[in-house]
Amino acid sequence: MSSTGSFTRFYDTWFDQLNQLLEQLRIAPKPPSSQDDRSHLSSLAQKIVSHYAEFYRVKSVAIESDVLSVFTAPWASCFERSLHWIAGWRPTTLFHLVYTESSILFEFHIADILKGQSTGDLGDLSPNQFRRVSELQCETVKEENAITDELSEWQDSATEVMMGPFTDHGDKIGRLVSVVKKADDLRLRTIRRVVELLTTQQAVEFLVAAGELQCGVYGWGRRLDHRPCQSA
């Protein structure tokens, strides 16, 4: 699957499948009341993570084939592209999502929490979990910045691509391939590492929130792209 047209079809199908997986997570019993429930939730969460891994596996092939098209993301809506960091979402967005969901659920269950009752959801993160999430956020910010700097260096050398010998063009494009792949690798690793820091129930809530945000941006962007043009 090397052409942008093929990846566009994959992209739309991938989102349809993501919505189906999210629906399975929404209707699954939460909190899990038995070991079977916990195993079922864990299996569904792993399916979501594997679905993201498949996305980046196929995207990697497209990057090797035509990195410039991938960078401009013609399959994405204008709204999606306005939010992109190096041909995709910014990894540190996930930490803002964790903190936001945790705060909302904490406030919702505050009466129970003050009574010493454990809710087991994202609003019930332990001090150790908060510390580890914060440490991972710092690590991710450093990696984001390093990749951003690498892209800036590539952009600064853009004149060399135009003025240098044609034989140098392949090396320049190869550097861009490396940058985009590093960004995608960080995106996938961040999903996996956040999930690893959470309990099964918390991981499911996190993945549902992340998926709903992504699908919301996807759907809203397409509605904006297809709205009628208004005359001045």
Automatic annotation (TrEMBL):
| DOG1 domain boundaries | 4-227
Q: Name one GO molecular function term.
A: sequence-specific DNA binding
**Taxonomy of the source species:** Eukaryota, Viridiplantae, Streptophyta, Embryophyta, Tracheophyta
Q: What is one GO biological process annotated to this record? A: DNA-templated transcription
User: What's the protein called, per UniProt?
Assistant: DOG1 domain-containing protein
Against Pfam families, the record matches this protein to: DOG1
